[in-house]
Amino acid sequence: MQHTQQALPVSQFRRKNGQQSSCENCRKSKLACDHAVPHCGRCVRLKRTETCVYLISPLAKSSSPSNAKSAAVSKRPTKEQNRPSPTAISAAYSLLSPSPLAEVDTARDHARGMGLGRPSSSRPDGLSKMTNWGSIFSDFNIEVEPELSAASLMPGMALPWKEPEILQHATTALAQIPSRTMCEGLLDHALKFPDFGCHEPFLRLLHEGWWEIFEGYFDETSAALNRSERLIERLWINTSNRKIDSFLSGSVEWLQSWTGHNTTWDSLAYLLSAYGSACASLLPSHPLLADCHKGQVCRDLGKGIKACLFICEAQGIFSLNAVNAHASMTLLQNSYDGDDSNHNYANVTNLARLANNLCLSLRSANWCFIQTQLEQKAFHRAFTMDKSIATSSGRPPQLTWRFNQCPLPLDLSDEQLTFTGNDLDLAISVLDSDGWNTGERSYPTSYLRALSMLGRHREEILELTMGPSAEILNNMQSDIVRRLQATYKGLPSRLRYDPSHHAHLAPFDFLNIIFLHLEYHKSIFLLYRLSQVVPLSQNKPLLSSAKAIINVMTMIYTHRDRLGEMFLFFPWAVMSYGTPAAAILAIELLLRPQCLALIANVTEIHPRSEIIQELSVFISCLNSIPTTEGNHAPCRRVAHTLRKIMDQVLESPARTISTARTVSTTSPATDADSAIGLDIDWQVFSTGPCDADYTQLLDPSSWMQMADPLDFRMEDLGLEIPSDAYFSELTDLGDEDITFDNGII
């Protein structure tokens, strides 16, 4: 009886080497088909997928091609041979894969062969692949990673600590730990200038327990080297026995369960991340770095953190220590390699995965108060980092507020988190209804809470970059700015920047208040950078936020002696905040003689002399970045580009008048909605005007790749000066929705 040949998609039977598949050729060559599906095309055509020879000897899983070919030829049934029964196939398959998962598959195949599986129907087997995600990607020639082996999917199966790969990473992690003297100095510095993942009591117990118990393993003796495997084994066992949820309700018991003899690989990664954060904030001339190079120490600590996290991944352990360590590792990498958007986005992807594996965004309060608060701090730290990196890389955030149910951590100090009983109740009683402490002192949690609240609005702004029309954008901009302004003004007064009252603040508080102020103005800056209708010289909110950012950057540079070691925050702030703001002001200053001189009804938003002075000081700031910083090279390129623009702005008046006459001969734009007018983006000189994908404009360093030499004449860009009527319609756009108070929008 002849069987009708069914037309099957060729992409479903594509060889693993990427070539076009041909099941008929496989059959004629007496070879088992090596396709992604576990049967060849001939068996699909004959509806004999249950007895396909590929189930017994798949060619793709053979150790060598020659052995696979001989095995396939020898095991392939001939015309004289009878087809094996389903029971025989199940038995043969169980001999080839003697594992628990294979036993389950054997039972399933046996039940299917005996008619105990799902009911049979006349539906073709090929239709079942229409809902398979792998087949969907294959239809569009998109490569899919190979499926993991059965052994790697077995629950509870972790690599033993004596595996070569585990031993290599464990040895690497232990070898990157500096001496005890340096670690003690780094810890003191980390607690003096803590980051958002730092918890002082936890780090002190972890540091003291580690060096008191395990210091002997780091002596350069043969006995100590022999004991290193015992240390690796102990950390492995402690990590394997660690569960995400602890039944300890007391803070002291909970801290002791992670430190001392109970130290795990993830807690060691957390300790190394504290050392690394402190080292990144040290001056190159610090006494702790007298005998070593700062960048090398940071790289070594980052390598140790990665090795510890790899071991935790191999054991399937996820904890808040791993989340904090991964977040610190991302910042540490930026300190010695510079702000790389691709690396940052990959790191924050893993950070979001760790947070989601722990269900931090959905977790409610449990029986341990300190664990609940530290988990909330870990999530909101990851949440704020996600918004910052999504902004710089021009990609959507991965931890969205829409699916977040994690409350803000209470505004308590690290010491208050360890309180129990009446002491804890008293500390909570002084908080207001929103969780803010009513005193005058701010803690790291205070700034983390404020950043997370501002991050919600940043997420809305990033969503706007993906597509609303110009008509809808104007209304949404006004609404977001009103809510953003209400959030910032609703913060406690001790967290808001006041230029006249910052002299009495400690360096740590002073810098964090500035950080909040910069985040607030950068959100407004990004929101009004979306405006493709309002000319740049008349975009009042954009220019005001850019000028506010530059004012703060020059103020930090002026008070660098007061900030001391905290001034190392400056190189990162220059690239994240100062560079885009300076670019907008420079381009607006460059185009100002070409537009404002021709239109009588338009006035300057900011005096020309102020902008020139601010940019001149900012160029000096860029040139002062030391060569030891990762952002040294891009800062110098920014300074060089800004200097070229300033030279062209300050050239002789004759050249300016000549340029203005040339521009005046161009015809005005006829379609105000389609033309961008004078809204010249600072990236337009490398990517071309009217770039609709705003996500490509969020990278603060991409604008530096302008054409050289710089020639910004309007006719060269193919742009036209809008008419006077066009300016009169757009001059006051949005002013009724935005108020200005002391230079703060």
TrEMBL record:
<feature type="region of interest" description="Disordered">
    <location>
        <begin position="60"/>
        <end position="86"/>
    </location>
</feature>
<dbReference type="InterPro" id="IPR001138">
    <property type="entry name" value="Zn2Cys6_DnaBD"/>
</dbReference>
<keyword id="KW-0805">Transcription regulation</keyword>
<feature type="compositionally biased region" description="Low complexity">
    <location>
        <begin position="60"/>
        <end position="75"/>
    </location>
</feature>
<keyword id="KW-0804">Transcription</keyword>
<feature type="domain" description="Zn(2)-C6 fungal-type">
    <location>
        <begin position="22"/>
        <end position="54"/>
    </location>
</feature>
<dbReference type="GO" id="GO:0000981">
    <property type="term" value="F:DNA-binding transcription factor activity, RNA polymerase II-specific"/>
</dbReference>
<keyword id="KW-0539">Nucleus</keyword>
<dbReference type="InterPro" id="IPR050613">
    <property type="entry name" value="Sec_Metabolite_Reg"/>
</dbReference>
<dbReference type="GO" id="GO:0005634">
    <property type="term" value="C:nucleus"/>
</dbReference>
<keyword id="KW-0238">DNA-binding</keyword>
<dbReference type="GO" id="GO:0008270">
    <property type="term" value="F:zinc ion binding"/>
</dbReference>
<dbReference type="Pfam" id="PF00172">
    <property type="entry name" value="Zn_clus"/>
</dbReference>
<dbReference type="InterPro" id="IPR036864">
    <property type="entry name" value="Zn2-C6_fun-type_DNA-bd_sf"/>
</dbReference>
<dbReference type="GO" id="GO:0003677">
    <property type="term" value="F:DNA binding"/>
</dbReference>
<protein>
    <recommendedName>
        <fullName>Zn(2)-C6 fungal-type domain-containing protein</fullName>
    </recommendedName>
</protein>
